[in-house]
Amino acid sequence: MPARAPRPCGRCRRVQCTCPPSSRDEHRGTAAQRGYDANWTRFRSWFLMRHPMCESDRGCRRFASEVHHIIKISEQPALRLVEGNCQALCGLHHRQLRGNGGRG
Question: Is 14 within 8 Å of 50 (Cβ atoms)?
Answer without folding.
Answer: no
